[in-house]
């Protein structure tokens, strides 16, 4: 056992030196993540076409029901629950079952009939700033249209109408960077980790040193571990650099636990490395490894929820996201970073990452062993 550990450490040192001695590799590992983090932090924006929301109607009047009907006729909003009290709002938003909560005050209709302002409170999930900000704008337009129509139908031409009061939880000012930058901790890290892992064996084959590796005392699983650990370490370094940019440059407050974040990222990197090793075992040269990595990484990025909310995807695409480790990494980093979520809250995502790693790593080991023999 000790001898096996020494061999793995020796191979780990060899792989890290191969990455760090090459000036181009050093630049590739450290510079692009920081640049991408800055670019996404300043330039990213999204569209919106589907928003699940919940309603707390404290008035239960004809006017309040008419307002809810006007919201649903918009086509963008889908009511997922009708609540009975304010305590039910937090779990709906925190668990991402709803992006918005519409709270209609008591005496809503009476205020309208009296020619006074009738308040409607909108509570948004500030973790997704694009959805929250755009949806609040849509609701303001709907409320204004409802007010004009209601005043016209009831003869209150000069009445103030409906006043929408908006709030956002987890990101009060709806700053896009607060949502985007934590997502990059997983997405950029996955891209580099998977590519480095996929190219590790291909680089050996192309340089002609793979055959030399086969005649050493290394066992197949030791070679696989020695190829996997350096990529995971590089991934953690990249994740740390992005985290420092978020903290020191963008000043995004971190609400969670560093230990929980590190544990979650380790599970995510293990799942990503398993996929990268599978690609590496199939590729015969670095070009094939690079193409294979790109073919895998791009769908993972698109199906992660980074650029398009998963709720807006077709049903088939939503099912495909369940096998995408990046989906869970983005969810985990958001919850830890903005909500101070602990292991108890993150258990479903962490379990999914463990399952993906438990499937991909043995398959990669089997493929790797077959290619060695």
Describe the protein's architecture and organization:
This protein has 373 residues and is of the alpha/beta class. The chain has 14 helices and five strands. The protein has helices at residues 2-20, 23-43, 62-73, 89-94, 108-113, 129-154, 176-207, 210-214, 220-249, 258-282, 286-302, 315-320, 325-339, 343-372; strands at 51-57, 77-82, 100-104, 118-125, 162-169. The chain has a five-stranded mixed beta sheet. α7 runs antiparallel to α9. The longest helix has 32 residues, at 176-207. The model has no long low-confidence stretch (mean pLDDT 81).
Write the layout of secondary structure elements.
Layout: H1 2-20, H2 23-43, E1 51-57, H3 62-73, E2 77-82, H4 89-94, E3 100-104, H5 108-113, E4 118-125, H6 129-154, E5 162-169, H7 176-207, H8 210-214, H9 220-249, H10 258-282, H11 286-302, H12 315-320, H13 325-339, H14 343-372
Parallel strand pairs: 1-2, 1-3, 4-5
Antiparallel strand pairs: 3-4
């Amino acid at each position: 056992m000790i001898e096996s550990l020494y061999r793995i450490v020796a191979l780990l040192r060899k792989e890290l030196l191969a990455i760090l001695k090459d000036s181009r590799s050093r630049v590739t590992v450290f510079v692009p993540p920081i640049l991408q983090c800055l670019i996404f932090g300043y330039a990213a924006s999204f569209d919106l076409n589907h928003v699940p929301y919940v309603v707390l109607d404290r008035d239960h009047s004809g006017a309040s029901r008419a307002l809810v009907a006007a919201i649903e006729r918009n086509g963008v909003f889908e009511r997922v629950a009708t609540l009975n009290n304010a305590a039910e709002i937090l779990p709906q938003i925190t668990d991402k079952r709803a992006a918005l909560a519409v709270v209609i005050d008591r005496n809503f209709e009476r205020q309208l009939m009296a020619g006074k302002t009738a308040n409607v409170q909108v509570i948004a999930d500030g973790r997704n700033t694009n959805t929250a900000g755009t949806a609040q704008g849509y609701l303001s337009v709907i409320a204004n249209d409802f007010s004009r129509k209601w005043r016209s139908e009831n003869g209150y031409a000069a009445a103030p109408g409906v006043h929408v009061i908006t709030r956002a939880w987890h990101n009060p000012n709806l700053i896009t960077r607060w949502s985007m930058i934590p997502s990059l901790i997983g997405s950029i890290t996955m891209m580099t980790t998977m590519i480095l892992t996929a190219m590790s064996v291909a680089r050996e084959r192309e340089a002609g040193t793979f055959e030399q590796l086969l005649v050493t005392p290394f066992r197949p699983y030791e070679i696989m571990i020695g190829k996997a650990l350096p990529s995971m370490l590089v991934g953690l370094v990249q994740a740390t650099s992005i985290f420092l940019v978020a903290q020191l440059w963008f000043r995004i407050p971190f609400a969670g636990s560093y230990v929980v974040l590190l544990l979650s990222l380790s599970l995510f990197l293990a799942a990503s490395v398993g996929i990268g090793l599978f690609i590496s075992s199939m590729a015969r040269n670095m070009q094939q490894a690079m193409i294979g990595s790109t073919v895998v990484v791009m769908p993972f990025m698109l199906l992660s929820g980074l650029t398009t909310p998963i709720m807006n995807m077709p049903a088939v695409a939503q099912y495909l996201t369940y096998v995408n480790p990046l989906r869970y990494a983005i969810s985990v980093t958001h919850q830890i970073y903005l909500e101070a979520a602990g292991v108890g809250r993150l258990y479903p995502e962490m379990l999914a990452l463990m399952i993906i790693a438990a499937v991909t790593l043995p398959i990669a080991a089997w493929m790797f062993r077959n290619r060695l023999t």
